[in-house]
Amino acid sequence: MITFTSSHVRRLLAIVLIGALGFLVACDDDDGPVEPVEPVDRTAAELVEGSDFLSTLERAISDSDPAILDVLGGEGPFTVFAPGNPALENWDVEGLLADPELLADVLQYHVAEGNFTTGDLGDGQSLTALEGTELTATSANVNGISYFRTDQNVTNGVVHLINGLLFANRTIAERAEFFLPAGEFNAAIDSFEVRGALDNPGDDLTAFIPTNASFAAVDALIEAQGLSDADVTEILQYHVLGESISAGELVALLDGGNETVAVPTLQGEDIIFEGVFQEDGDGEPQLQSIVINDGQATINLGSTDLRSSNGIAHFITGVLLPEEFRPAMDEVIASTGGLGTLTAALGATGLDEALAPRDGTFTVFAPSDDAFSAYDVDLLLSDPTVLADVLQYHVINGQELGSGDLTEGPVTTLQGDEINVSFGEENAVFINNASVTTVDIPAVNGVLHIIDDVLLENRTLATRLNVTLATQTLAERLREAELEAVFEDESLTWTVFAPTNAAFDAANFDQFTFSEREAILQYHVLTEAVDSGVLVDALTDEEAELTVTTLQGEDLTFTGTFDDEGALTGININGDQARIDLGNVDIEALDSFIHLIDGVLLPPSLTDEDGDNGAV
Questions:
Q1: Cα–Cα distance between 135 and 113 in angstroms, integer?
Q2: Residue 282 contacts by C-beta under 8 Å, 6 or more apart in sequence?
Q3: Angle at 366 between CA 355 and CA 443, to 5 degrees
Q4: Peptide bond into 77 cis (omega under 30)
Q5: Can you tell me the mean pLDDT for 548-552?
Q6: Around 180, how many Cα atoms within 13 Å sit in the side-chain half-sphere?
């Protein structure tokens, strides 16, 4: 696991600031003033009243405490941090207007005594707001909120247009009440009586606020586990730390040589933080994310350090669960999108119950619904014994292997056979020939990784051909020719150049006699395992060809096609009889290989004098 360094701290702080700008900016050139405001005989109050860009601010002042405009029209001097209309789009303005006393307090927090241009603010300065508390302003931001336009001169001071509402003088609970991206969190702390814990200005807390979309998981969890109100209250308290920790401070904690950092929550249990890095083009580690509890949630680096009077808030994608409420593997699979087919298959075999014990330990490589789409699922479901054997081949029992724990080489599965772990470019992970597309989905009793293929490499060649949709016509033809049994033999090794269903549809296969059909099918088979790499290595240029003898006894001849730069673009068999589908090669079954081809091959003994394909 990669730990943080001081350079990582600087990089993260830069990422956070850039992300915060992207999160808070909700305006473009069409929304903002086109020309700088003229300072001649215009007070700060007149600027606010006369600018369409500040109409929401003007309405808020007028409806809460019009006296603020009287103050802004006075002698001053004042420094006004004025949020434009787009900056207020993430806020419940109507809700704020319904509480004039609070709104007036918030608005006075946007005005400081004295005339401070961005040149005066420099690297940072503490300013006293009319509301009575302190603002921290620099030449680039105020309280971490960036400027949209600066140094708008007025006769009684200066106005800076900003990209957000200054709310650091209110509590975390108040921010949640009026900040629309926290709407679901706000409803939850109301419903389950957690608001009071976040509303005391004397506290110093950190709240991890799940996005509105993430809260759908809470509703599903309540239904799946039958949670009581007290249970949900405990889950919400697990999102709050009893001390304020900024994003930079969190990085600094991890920078102390710690791979992870554990911090206790108000609920009593710890949450665990970990940094995830990826090397850039210069080999330097770049922070990608900060994850919590092995992937339960990810901190949104664009939405951190939202300061309040009683601490700080960070938005997260995901929901944090104390151990008691973390779902077991069967529940994780059932609730993860895109795993519906696997969920049905586990239920049909009873293996969902095998993955349910909370004291078990499992690593599951879960084929997605798209992965199953290449196979005859109904055929698999029709034989629960075989299906259970296939599914157990996707499970490692007794080990929780997160992505950082996987090592190259074989691993024994619950089914008893081994799968092979390998690594490719750009941190790609493969299980046999399947790519891992999503890693480290946690369960209380293990970890889940999603893969893009069903693992069938330990099945017989006959089973593989039968269950793969693209080769079911070939499987049927082998049965008709009474050849299927030989491909059920686990001790034999084969290579099959498998015509697709469409290839058989285009061929006039039924006109041949039984013995001719048998010969044709055997002509698609080699008696040894030949992967596509052997063919590619043999076809080095346009003059190269490879000849091999088939099970039927006659030869196949392979040639390549090349682009203008001499790179291999395709492999042909017997001239133009068929072409290998290079996107569907090396389909493994035990120690055998299947390569899909787009035509049916005829042995030379069945072609006419010109070498044509006869009736096929």
A1: 11
A2: none
A3: 45
A4: yes
A5: 97
A6: 13
Query: What is the rounded CA–CA span in Å between residue 537 and residue 583?
Result: 17
Residue 375 is classified by DSSP as B
For strand 125-128 and strand 111-113, is the pairing parallel, antiparallel, or unpaired?
unpaired
pLDDT level of residue 608 (50, 70, 90 thresholds): low
Give the strand pairing for 495-499 and 525-526: antiparallel
Please tell me what DSSP assigns to residue 269. Answer: S
Residue 217 has pLDDT above 90, yes or no: no
Q: Look up tokens 């247009």; give the residue.
A: 161
Query: Between vectors from CA 551 to CA 549 and to CA 555, what angle results, nearest 5°?
Result: 25
Phi (first) and psi of residue 586, to 5 degrees:
60, 35
Residues 225 and 242: their CA atoms lie apart, in Å, by: 28
Dihedral over alpha carbons 350, 352, 353, 354 (to 10 degrees): 90
DSSP 536: H
Residue 326 has pLDDT above 70, yes or no: yes
Say if residue 134 is exposed, middle or buried (CB neighbours under 10 Å; 0-12, 13-18, 19+).
Answer: middle
* Cα–Cα distance measured from residue 266 to residue 237, given in angstroms and rounded to the nearest whole number: 5
How many CA atoms are closer than 13 Å to the CA of 326, on its beta-carbon side? 24
Q: Tokens 């269950």 identify what position? A: 467
Q: Which one-letter amino acid corresponds to residue 131? A: E
Question: In what helix (H) or strand (E) does residue 379 lie, and over which residues does it extend?
Answer: helix 377-381
Tell me the C-alpha distance between 387 and 368, whole Å.
Answer: 16
Amino acid present at 541: D
- Bridge partner residues of 86 (DSSP): none
The residues near 132 (Cβ < 8 Å, ≥ 6 apart) are none
DSSP readout, 113-181?
ES---HHHHTT-EEEEBTTSSEEEE-SSEETTEEEEEEEEEETTEEEEEESS---TTS-HHHHHHHBGG
State the pTM of this model.
0.68
